Automatic annotation (TrEMBL), chain A:
Protein name as catalogued: Spore cortex-lytic enzyme
Pfam families tied to this protein: Hydrolase_2, PG_binding_1
Domain Peptidoglycan binding-like: 46-101
Entry's Gene Ontology BP terms: cell wall organization; spore germination; sporulation resulting in formation of a cellular spore
Matching InterPro entries: Cell_wall_hydrolase_SleB, Peptidoglycan-bd-like, PGBD-like_sf, PGBDSf, SleB_dom1, Spore_cortex_SleB
NCBIfam families for the chain: spore_SleB
Top-rank taxon, per record: Bacteria
Species of the source: Alicyclobacillus sacchari
Family: Belongs to the SleB family.
Transmembrane segments annotated in the record for this chain: none
Keywords associated with the record: Cell wall biogenesis/degradation, Germination, Hydrolase, Signal, Sporulation
Sequence ranges assigned to domain Cell wall hydrolase SleB in this UniProt record: 170-267
UniProtKB/TrEMBL annotation, chain B:
Protein name: Spore germination protein
Pfam families reported for this sequence: YPEB_N, YPEB_PepSY1-2
Lineage, top ranks: Bacteria, Bacillati, Bacillota, Bacilli, Bacillales
Source organism: Alicyclobacillus sacchari
BP GO annotations: spore germination
Domain of life: Bacteria
Cross-referenced InterPro entries: YpeB_N, YpeB_PepSY1-2
């Protein structure tokens, strides 16, 4: 009898505890997702960048898509935020910037940005004044982030990767970079067309175009070779032509001054 | 009876199989002829378009020579640019492997660049050097037209002029080669003013570095002490020559690097090894890359671009000269994001100027900013050093911002106020 009474008491306590916990949890505000410890810079990707863009969007600094990629608009938004909040204007998101951002957006939560935002730049004008009233945050004197531009589109790079794979798969890696470098050297030479597609598809310019191997799907190595060539690696040191001595009988090609041999290809001036 | 039936069946089978084979072969032949006719038509179209554009170019050059009014001169120069560009496009659709001289393309490119340069610089139409160049271009354009006309009017069979099976026909090949050779190179023309491109090769510098020193230089970069099996080969041809190509193996992978034999400068560095799972922080990799550059002697740099793919981070740093970034010169550092190791270094663009280019009579900031269109929403502006169309380093103002939803950069010469270029930022 006594043990039954004790069981009843214990059950009441358990029910009471569960109800209390449930009520407490429902009454709490939704949990705020916080940044991880890593710093963010132009080129960073991931959930942290999503959060950064979301918080900046909430404050009206960021007007682009919440895509998790730290690009130009994110960079400019960070700079404006840093300027307005008295932080060093670097465009890089360090711990101090993250703390200031979290403090400025206490009500932000991850679900707010599920739709992403593509507001127009007009929304941004309130913070930087547009072209007529430049904020001092926009004026950079030597320091700051100055992005480069290769001037090549994604389709150009993809086409180059197709040529590299079609012409030089199986060659050493530097031999693949060399093919991409030759294409880029032609792009900068006045004797050749001014675009990557025109260079690649000039009749007779590349064997892989003639035999259809340009249509093969390039692998990761070919894409990396293109990326390295675009980054400035030119193992050919300015070559404009190359040929496979085992397959070429073109006398003119053989007469060209050789720069170097990489794998099965001779690269010429 | 049975034998007769057997023979008849056999004969019928032979006829059916033979007929089918013939029909298939005939179809293939017709397809091949149709393809060849299509290719011929395309080449002929490109050739005729090239001729028409060259004639228009020659007319525009004549018009530019015939006027003294600056406004009319600029209008005719615009036509010159337009037709030169169109001619380049037409020629790019003709077979290119008959001759690698590409003199016509070079000629058109030079005419195009020069016309653009004259327009930007507000060149007077009556200047003697301008008239001399225009006359030279006019004559050369006439030569090209004559050469193209010879090919256009060459006697042709009903089937093909351009293709002989899968090869370019000898008549077409020889015609194009003769045309290229007859024009000669622009460099051979002393009267033509060709804008500097900045890519011309210079005389090779003297060798001041021994191969062992080159190996030591690369070994210090790679953090290797044992280089007994490393090799350094001197190369004297190509850009940046003379240079040593240094190759060797390390416990981490194989190294391939190039060191200038004249200055000892590291030109490129590549560590070849498998890249593991990405677990290194990207921002930390950027910091490491800049510290690595500092160890190579590049202290005054600014991060200019960054990106990562396939577990590899790439950072571009622009040198600072007098505190200003040099846009057309960069050092690229590649970092493996499995452990943060630097696996690549490449120079890009021209070597930076040794000192800040002079900028006297600088246009006021407001006047410069007024040269940017009203639809362009500026996000940042800063002074930079860039190469102008003549190949000289100049100070300029770079305005970065958005047009609609796309990021762009407008660069304006600090002294002349001329727009040097517009970059679409990726």
């Amino acid at each position: 009898m006594r043990s039954g009474f004790r069981s009843l008491q214990l059950g009441k306590w358990i029910v009471f505890t569960i109800l209390t916990c449930a009520l407490t949890m429902t009454s709490l505000p939704s949990q705020v997702k916080a940044f991880t410890a890593r710093n963010l810079i132009y080129g960073s990707e991931g959930y942290d960048v999503n959060e950064l863009q979301g918080r900046l969007h909430l404050l009206g600094y960021y007007w682009g898509k919440n895509d998790g990629i730290f690009g130009w608009k994110t960079y400019w938004a960070v700079r404006t935020f840093q300027y307005n909040f008295g932080l060093p204007v670097t465009g890089d998101v360090d711990m101090a910037t993250k703390q200031a951002l979290v403090k400025a957006t206490p009500n932000w939560n991850y679900h707010m940005d599920s739709n992403g935002g593509t507001n127009t730049v007009a929304n941004q004008e309130g913070t930087n004044g547009g072209t007529n009233g430049l904020s001092p945050a926009t004026v950079v004197a030597g320091d700051g982030f100055s992005h480069g531009s290769s001037g090549l589109s994604a389709s150009d790079l993809n086409l180059m990767a197709h040529v590299v794979y079609g012409e030089a798969r199986g060659e050493p890696f530097e031999g693949q970079v060399a093919i991409a470098a030759v294409i880029l050297n032609r792009l900068h030479d006045p004797k050749f067309p001014k675009t990557i597609p025109a260079i690649v598809y000039a009749p007779g310019a590349f064997d892989c175009v003639n035999d259809g191997q340009i249509n093969l799907q390039p692998n990761a190595e070919a894409r990396r070779a293109v990326a390295d060539a675009v980054a400035g690696w030119d193992p050919t040191h300015g070559a404009l032509f190359y040929f496979n001595p085992a397959k070429t009988s073109n006398a003119w090609m053989w007469a060209r001054p050789e720069i170097m041999t990489i794998g099965h290809h001779i690269f010429t001036d | 009876m049975r034998r007769s039936i057997w023979w008849m069946t056999t004969a019928l089978a032979v006829v059916v199989v033979g007929g089918s084979a013939y029909a298939w072969g005939r179809q293939q032949q017709l397809n091949g002829q149709a393809m060849a006719a299509m290719v011929n038509a395309q080449y002929d179209g490109a050739l005729h378009n090239a001729l028409a554009d060259m004639e228009s170019l020659r007319g525009a050059l004549a018009s530019a020579m015939l006027v003294a009014d600056p406004e009319s001169f600029d209008r005719h120069l615009s036509d010159v640019e337009k037709f030169a560009y169109a001619g380049e496009n037409d020629l790019s659709r003709l077979p290119s492997n008959v001759s690698a001289d590409h003199n016509i393309n070079e000629f058109l490119h030079t005419v195009n660049s020069q016309a653009e340069h004259w327009i930007i610089a507000n060149q007077s139409p009556s200047a003697a050097s301008v008239q001399q160049s225009l006359a030279s271009y006019y004559t050369r354009a006439g030569n090209v037209i004559n050469g193209l006309e010879r090919i256009v009017n060459a006697p042709r069979s009903t089937t093909s002029y351009w293709m002989d099976g899968r090869q370019l026909a000898p008549a077409a090949r020889d015609g194009l080669a003769r045309l290229e050779q007859s024009l000669g190179t622009m460099a051979a023309d002393g009267t033509g003013q060709q804008p500097k491109t900045g890519t011309k090769s210079k005389p090779a510098a003297p060798i001041a570095l021994q191969s062992t020193e080159a190996v030591k230089r690369v070994a210090s970069v790679a953090g290797v002490t044992n280089t007994t099996k490393w090799k350094a080969q001197l190369h004297t041809a190509g850009e940046n020559a003379p240079y040593y190509l240094v190759v060797g193996d390390t416990t981490r992978g194989s190294v391939r690097a190039e060191v200038s034999a004249a200055t000892g400068r590291l030109i490129s560095y590549h560590l070849s090894r498998p890249i593991g799972t990405k677990k290194y922080d990207f921002a930390q990799a950027a910091t490491d890359a800049q510290a690595w550059l500092a160890r190579q002697g590049y202290h005054q740099v600014i991060r200019a671009d960054a990106g990562n793919s396939d577990g590899i981070a790439r950072f571009a740093y622009q040198p600072l000269v007098g505190g200003l970034p040099v846009l057309d010169s960069s050092f690229n550092v590649v970092v493996a994001l499995d452990n943060g190791q630097v696996v690549g270094f490449y120079e890009q663009g021209k070597l930076p100027p040794t000192s800040l280019p002079k900028a006297t009579k600088v246009i006021p900031a407001n006047a410069l900013r007024a040269k940017v269109g009203p639809k362009f929403h500026i996000q940042s502006e800063r002074k930079v050093i860039v190469e102008n169309p003549s190949g000289d380093w100049v100070q300029a103002m770079a305005y970065e911002g958005v047009l609609g939803d796309e990021p762009y950069r407008v660069i304006i010469d600090l002294q002349t106020g001329h727009e040097l270029r517009v970059d679409r930022l990726s």
